């Protein structure tokens, strides 16, 4: 599936941000990014929904007794942390939507059991009635599209934890932004997630990370790995649990993400394996759990939350037996390039030359105040370029895909043309943020990056949201 088509399915709107609040979850309000025209409009909302969880919304109950859980309660021995094979999965029994998970569903959901040492530490904090922050980063599924703020899997899972540990204070951070993948997630995770000092982070990007070229596949796999590394190495030592989703036709980045989580020995819960199997068996249909080609509806989010909470219950049941060394991510080179990347927006870097660009006082796609040019006649000269000076060996550019008035831009590194970016998304579903790799393997030291819009007949617009340097 072409990348633009996939993004249309993934997020009908870029309703990125939910206002930041430490009040009860029911007080959370959302604010959407602009969709019409060539220019995003202003929004004052923050990046993430951040609340202190309460019991106002009932959570799905744990779906199966631990004795029926074929995956079982596991130790930290990574030899047991492999993808279940058909021979290890219990015999299928009929599943009724809204009912308990079957043993076969539970087994299929455990794509990678993973090392549970950090997760056990989170459970022990909850048992001791301490304060714990649980964060979720992903695309429109995590954001709650088709289910809403209160019935999305993230909120349901947090509610379940709060009901399990009613005397613990659980802070809830939802950093889901529609039409974003790991390539953007690795840049925004610091402000959207790590700034809240999380103890437990769920990562969901398996649909949005799909690409239509080998290069994009490698970039998305490595940015996903870099994202996990950034979370893992944060000062609060958060536990990480990953989630694999799917489109109706089975399109998913699960196998590529799976390479990462197995190399890192990180847990992965597969909604894909479970849902496609029960549909194939005829127990439910896709329309039962989704109102389009990708987003789970209320029923689908409930199933996903049950899969997650069943896994968490297995850790709770075995928490006193979980010990030893935690995962050692240094054993793999995946994502190293993106681990220490620095993302620079108008708040962190000043162009050495503005040209005809201006700062748009707005928020779009979760990022503040992009640089933009909008020329009604569509004519540009060399003097109209915007330029940046940076120090690093790799550089990426974040820009905006536009449904109206977009014009191509030539990108220069140290005066040499290296790439032409096309932001045109004519007649598309809406404007959205995208990322492009500009140069890798540069010599150490300072470099210049220049963005020069191409002339065209009529309205011509180009947006630069930021540059990423490593």
The radius of gyration computed from the alpha-carbon positions, rounded to a whole number of angstroms, is 22 Å
Oligomer type: single chain
> How confident is the prediction overall: mean pLDDT?
86
| Low-confidence segments | 1-47, 54-81
| Total E-strand runs | 22
**Distance between termini?**
31 Å
By secondary-structure content and strand pairing, the structural class works out as alpha+beta
Please indicate the percent range of residues in DSSP E strands (runs of 2 or more).
15-25%
Largest beta sheet, briefly?
Answer: 8 strands, mixed
Helix content: 25-40%
CA-based shape = globular
Total helices: the number is: 12
Identify the strand order in the major beta sheet: 2-4-7-6-8-9-10-5
Name a few traits of the molecule:
single chain; 470 residues; alpha+beta; eight-stranded mixed β-sheet; six-stranded antiparallel β-sheet; 22 strands; disordered N terminus
Give a summary of the structure in a few sentences.
This protein is an alpha+beta fold.
Textual characterization of the structure:
The protein has an 8-stranded mixed sheet with strand order 2-4-7-6-8-9-10-5, sandwiched between helices. The chain is globular and about 65 Å long. Strand 9 (239-244), helix 8 (254-264) and strand 10 (268-270) form a beta-alpha-beta unit. The two termini are 31 Å apart. Helix 2 crosses helix 9 (271-280). It is an alpha+beta fold and 470 residues long. It contains 12 helices and 22 strands. 26% of the residues lie in helices and 23% in strands.
């Amino acid at each position: 599936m072409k990348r633009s088509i996939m993004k249309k399915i993934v997020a009908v709107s870029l309703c990125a941000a939910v206002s930041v609040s430490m009040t009860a979850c029911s007080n959370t309000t959302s604010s959407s990014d602009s969709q019409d025209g060539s220019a995003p409009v202003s929004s004052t909302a923050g990046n993430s929904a951040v609340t202190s969880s309460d019991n106002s919304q009932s959570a799905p109950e744990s779906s199966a007794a631990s004795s029926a859980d074929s995956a079982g309660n596991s130790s930290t021995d990574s030899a047991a942390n492999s993808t279940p094979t058909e021979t290890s999965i219990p015999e299928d029994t009929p599943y009724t939507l809204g009912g308990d998970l079957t043993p076969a569903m539970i087994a299929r959901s455990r794509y990678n059991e993973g090392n549970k040492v950090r997760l056990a530490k989170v459970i022990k904090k909850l048992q001791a009635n301490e304060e714990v922050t649980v964060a979720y980063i992903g695309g429109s599924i995590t954001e709650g599209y088709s289910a809403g703020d209160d019935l999305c899997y993230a909120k349901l899972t947090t509610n379940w934890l709060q009901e399990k540990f009613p005397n613990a204070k659980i802070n809830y951070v939802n950093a889901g932004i529609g039409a974003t993948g790991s390539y953007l997630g690795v840049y925004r995770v610091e402000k959207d997630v790590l700034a809240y000092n999380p103890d437990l982070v769920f990562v969901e990007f398996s649909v949005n990370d799909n690409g239509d070229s080998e290069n994009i596949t490698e970039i998305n796999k490595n940015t996903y790995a870099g994202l996990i590394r950034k979370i893992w190495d944060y000062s609060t030592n958060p536990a990480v649990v990953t989630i694999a989703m799917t489109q109706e036709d089975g399109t998913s980045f699960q196998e590529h993400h799976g390479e990462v989580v197995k190399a890192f020995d990180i847990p992965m819960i597969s909604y894909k394996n479970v849902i496609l199997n029960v549909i194939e068996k005829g127990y439910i249909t896709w329309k039962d759990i989704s109102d389009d080609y990708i987003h789970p509806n209320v029923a689908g989010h409930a199933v996903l939350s049950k899969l997650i909470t069943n896994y968490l219950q297995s850790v709770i049941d075995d928490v006193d037996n979980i010990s030893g060394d935690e995962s050692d991510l240094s054993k793999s080179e995946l994502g190293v390039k993106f681990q220490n990347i620095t993302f620079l927006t108008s708040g962190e870097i000043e162009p050495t030359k503005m040209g005809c660009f201006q700062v748009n006082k707005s928020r779009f796609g979760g990022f503040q105040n992009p640089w933009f040019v909008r020329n009604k006649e569509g004519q540009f000269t060399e003097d109209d370029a915007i330029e940046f000076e940076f120090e690093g060996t790799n550089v990426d550019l974040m820009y905006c895909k536009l449904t109206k008035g977009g014009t191509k831009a030539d990108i220069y590194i140290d005066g040499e043309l290296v790439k032409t970016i096309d932001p045109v998304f004519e007649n598309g579903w809406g404007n959205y943020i995208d990322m492009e790799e500009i140069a890798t393997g540069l010599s150490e030291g300072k470099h210049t990056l220049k963005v020069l819009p191409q002339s065209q007949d009529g309205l011509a617009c180009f947006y630069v949201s930021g540059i990423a340097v490593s």
